Each structure stands twice: as structure tokens, then as C-alpha cells.
Amino acid sequence: MARPPTIAGRARREGLIFGECLFDHFPDGDRVGGAPLNVARHLWALGQQPLLVSRVGQDGEGARIRDLLHTWGMDARGLQEDPQYPTGSVEVLPDAVLGHQFLILPRQAYDRIAWPAQLPALSRIAFLYHGTLALREPGSRGTWERLTGQSDWRFVDLNLRAPWWTSDLLATVLPGTRVLKLNADELGTLAQAFSLQGGGRQSRVADLAQRFAIGEVVITHGAEGAVAWAGGLWQECPAPVVRVEDSVGAGDAFAAVWMVGILHGWPVDLRLIRAQALAAAICTVRGALPSDSAFYAPFLRDWGLHP
User: Fold this and answer.
1) What is the pLDDT of residue 2?
2) pTM greater than 0.90 (yes/no)
3) Residue 199 is part of which domain span?
């Protein structure tokens, strides 16, 4: 095994990004996507080296995803191939109210993610990022359960997509997570699913965090900014004003910076500012990911990071 990379001369264990790699099919063309893939790309560009663990089909789209990982200089060894199921596919339809609607197909390769061969059976994982979509089937969910038991901390990016979640699944996913990221609509969904106390945002979040032993709760509000609950304290941050091309992937950029901030010891208020900055910048380009790695240069410079 290669010697682990270091930060400031100290050996570090990298994290693991678990979940779907797929193609979003928009009316005007196809784009590679899946929140875990987007988050992993951002983390690698910002100087982290997590192992992306996902599964694609033995098809052209799976090959395109693997080629992209190599182009970006990412470790593709955790990208498994499935001989039966196809690479994930989502039909994305514009919606005047919701922004986008997603038609997510069943029986996709990411439903059968196996234990990553690169990870020794008893090794510890520095952190684990995941959502809920890839946990909808027993195959991937069983792998996730094992990974959870070996992770020092978790970042749960809720990303609820009907009909691919249940209250029972959420009751399994939420307990003990260090960071829960969700949007305002999803908070309302959780309030209904678990009969959270109080009618206001703060009381609901406090009840949610206490009930499931969650360390931090981050709520994104799009153009209105984001709020964070941590240690019983609330902090808010407005979103930068930018010319929006589209908002696809903004939340994934936010999540990546939040994890970078934890790993580098940034306080919550600084994490909010910087996560909002990258999320806003992603809104100025078409799609969830920039086409040029130079996009990240100002953030690396201003934040003192090294790719």
C-alpha cells in the first residue's frame, strides 16, 4: 500500500465518498452527475483525496465516467463495474416552481455497490460522505452499513428523491451523523415523518439533532443563503449575488467545502462563507461541474489550499 499523503508533515487517512455515479439527461443534452461524484470531484480539486466508491455498468456511459475521473486526476479504483445493471440514468425536467424534477430509474449499477477491494476489512475511514438514493436497495445498503461501522464521522447529504426513501431508512441513516445537510423542504419532510416538536425551524432542528445525536445541521436556502446549527448555536450567511447560469450542483459544492473546512479546522462561520462562495460560483457555469480545473485556482489561493 502506498504511503498516505500528509498535511503539514502529519500522516492523514483519507475519507470515502459513497453513492451514485450517473448521467443526468437534460432536454438539451447529457451531463455526468450524481451528488457523490460531484462532491468527490470538488474535494480532489481542493486538495483532498477521498476514495470514490460507486458502480457503473459495462457500457459507454460507464466508460465515459471512468475516463473523466482519469482526466481530473482522481483515483478511479473504487469505481466498480456491473455486468448486468446499466450506469445510472436520470431524466431531468425543468420545473417553474421546483427548479427541476427528476425521473430516477430503478435497477441501476449503483444499487449494487460492493465492498471496495481497496479497503482492508478492518481499516478505519477518516470520514464517510453519502446521501440516501444509493441506499434504496439491499445490495448497496449492506455495503454502506459496513462502511458506517468503520468511519470516524459521517456527512449525510439528504437529497431526498421520491419514491426512493422511507421513514425507516431515514431512521437508520440519521443517528450519530456529525453533519446533516438538507434544504428547507426536506426539513419539513423530516418534521412530518418524525413529528418534530415546535412549528419553527430552530425548534425542529434542535429536536431533530437531540433525537438522532446529530452534531451539526446545515440548511441551504438557494439564493437566500444558508444557516447552520452547531453546538446549540445558530449562524446564518447570505448567498453571494451572482449571475446564475443554472443551480445544478450548487449544494454538492457547498457540501465539499464544508468537509474541507472540518478537515482544516475552520470555524462554522468561515465554513458558511466559503461553502456559499463555491456554491455561488458553480451557479455561474453550466452544469454541476466546471469544465476547466482553473476554476478552482482562486479558491485554492485565497483559502491557502494545495491541490
Assistant:
1) 35
2) yes
3) 13-295
